[in-house]
Amino acid sequence: MSIYNIPPLLAAIANLFLGGLVIGKRPKGRVNRAWGLLTLFIAVWSFGTFTLYISHDTTTALSWLKLYNLGVILIPPAFMHFAFAISDDESSKGKTAVVSAYLISGIFVGLSLLGLFNPSVSHHTWGYYPVTGPANFPFDLFFAIAVCISGARLLIAFNASRGWKRNQFFYIFIATVIGFGSGATNFLPLYGGKVYPMGHVGILVTGTIITIAIIRYRFMDITLIIRNSAVYSVLTAIVTAAYVSIVFVLQAAFRGLTGNNSTLAVIIVALIVAMTFEPVRRNVQVVIDKLFFREKFEFQQITKETSETLRTEVSPENIASHVLRVIVDAVQTANGLLMILDRESNDLLVVASSNVPLEIRATLKISRDSRPIEHMAHTRRPLWLDDPDAGVFRRRVDNDLRDEIDKLGVRSLFPLYGKKELVGVMLLGEKRSGDVINHNDSELIMTICNQAAISIENSRLYDDLQASYLNTVKSLVAALEAKDEYTKGHSERVASYARAIAFEMKLSDKDAKLLYEVSLLHDVGKIGVSERVLNKKGKLTREELIHVQSHTITGEKILSTVGSIRDGLSAVRHHHEKLNGEGYPDGLSEVTIPLNARILAVADSYDAMTTKRPYREAMTENQAVQELKDYSGKQFDPRVVRAFISVLLKTKNRAHRDWQKDAGPKRPTHLRTA
Question: What are phi and psi of 55, to 5 degrees?
Answer without folding.
Answer: -65, 140
